[in-house]
Amino acid sequence: MKLRQQLGKAVRQAVSRRRFLSILGAATASAGLPSPARSAAAGAWDLIVVGGGNAGMPAAIFAARRGARVLIVEAAGVLGGTLHLSTGQMSAAGTKLQKSKGIEDTAQYHYDDVMRISKGTADPDMVRLAVFNAGDTFDWLMDRGFDVRPGQPVLGTTHDPYSRARYVWGKNGGRSILRILEEELQPEIDSGRVTVLLSTEVTDLIQDDGGAVTGVATKNIHGETASYASSNILLTCGGYTANSDMFERLEGAPDYTDMTYPHSQGAGITLGLSAGGYLRGREHHLPLFGAVLAHGNYPSPIIGAVRHYPPNRPPWEIFVNIRGKRFLREDVPSHDAYEEALLKLPDEQCWVVFDDAMFNQAPRLVSPVFGGLTREDIVEAFEAPWPMFSRADSIDALAAAAGIDAQGLQDTVARFNAGQAMGKDEFGRQHMPLPIAKPPYYAIKLHSWTLSSAAGLAVDKQLRVIRDDGGPITGLFAAGELLGKGAFMGRSVVGGMLVTPALTLGRVFGQSLLKLPA
Questions:
Q1: 171-199 pLDDT, tens per residue?
Q2: Domain containing residue 353: CATH number
């Protein structure tokens, strides 16, 4: 019964993820931010920001402080975007926080680390624009009360680390950042320099005969349409991780999980392409490892994750592919190695396999990141049986139950046990406390998952959306996740290089890249 309650909770959380925007919208409106009913005044705008999240809010704040008349058009019922769900991971060099702790760091060191960790796959221009301005962004937040977790900054967590401690998490996740953005934006709203349209989608970009973008067409939650003119349109409406069709088309991989921001529907991709832009970064798809799903009706809620980090929880089990073969050294001390290995597997699926001795003696296998499954939950799952959990009294029967090649799994277990007995594993694994030899035997099916979009609109150093010939589309700009995680991290996970670049590029655009009339 307990597992069914856990599953019910996971499903409810997935559903509530779609509902929470309206709840937050009501709370935000009561706190003084604009309600969806507020309408924009007529006339041209100095800047129209499409999407009021990580990049859009700073852009509006800093543009308004320069005297710009700004319109934010947000599809959700509340501002903030993914900050409502984000853990608020940031990285910046040369900050006041680092200096207070005696940490010597520079933007060049930060840049070098990003390019090293990304194996040279991140976009040099975008990384440079982000990291050489990140310190000022971070200090701006800290000066206004941004609260980081105790003991930070750090070198990193479970992916390849930085060379210097510059990685921090918001104490209250992304909401630590959102609180400050709301406080900084409110005076601009009160002054009339910023107007916000909530629950309103931009349905089209308006272009003149020469292709320049001159405005937007909108439709609100009530079906009312309108158009607004501006010579500066900034797209900051996020990625496409909640749009399964677009995700699978652009990433070339299955969309297994339902856990990202509901409004990450790829609207900015569609708008940018319609105006003549193009996408880059599709080759940087890299899945996260180890999702335990509620069911096989994809996309599914996650009820747990097997993402153990060997320095914290050395592996006892083995991981196998559909052919029953191991595909990596399980105690390699980097999630990046796990993700690269998963990327090469058919359908980005694998199984964790273990025996009864491991089940009873090993530390907790399933991560508590998503609430986690206790040992009692897992016992119940194997007894149910649950779709992703298999148990049998022989290796052959386990393979049949899990859908793994029986001969391959037999051979793999035999080879692992022989290596364990000799203390010499064929993959070079060092931590092998037990063989897989005591029935019953167990397998849990694991899937890839993701939190961000690899591909994004191509822009130049001024954040102008460009055509595939390199020429800019007049009047159209983009920032944030809409540029794709590949721009800032390449085909890797680099700590803090999603939230920080979005905030930073939004700030830089509003502060200096946006050209205003004299």
A1: 999 999 999 999 999 999 999 999 999 99
A2: 3.90.700.10
- Shared domain for 159 and 299, answered yes or no, is no
The verdict on residue 18 lying in a domain is no
Token pair 């991709």 is found at 269
- Strand, helix or coil for residue 400: helix
Q: In Å, what is the CA distance from 313 to each residue of 158, 250, 310, 332, 494?
A: 11, 35, 5, 12, 22
Neighbours of 32 (CB within 10 A): 10
**Residue spans of beta strands (DSSP E) within 272-428:** 279-280, 288-293, 302-305, 318-320, 349-355, 389-392
In this structure, are 422 and 459 located in the same domain?
A: no
Q: CA-to-CA distance for 31 and 186, rounded, in angstroms?
A: 10
**Residue with structure tokens 């009312």?**
224
Q: Region 119-143: what's the mean pLDDT?
A: 98
Residue pointed to by tokens 């800019």: 472
What is the span of the domain harbouring residue 302? 288-449
Query: Rounded to an integer, what distance in angstroms lies between the CA atom of residue 129 and that of residue 234?
Result: 17
Residue 6 lies in a domain: no
Domain identity same for 359 and 462: no
Give the contacts of 518 (CB within 8 A, at least 6 positions apart).
none
Predicted pLDDT at 21: 42
pTM exceeds 0.85, yes or no: yes
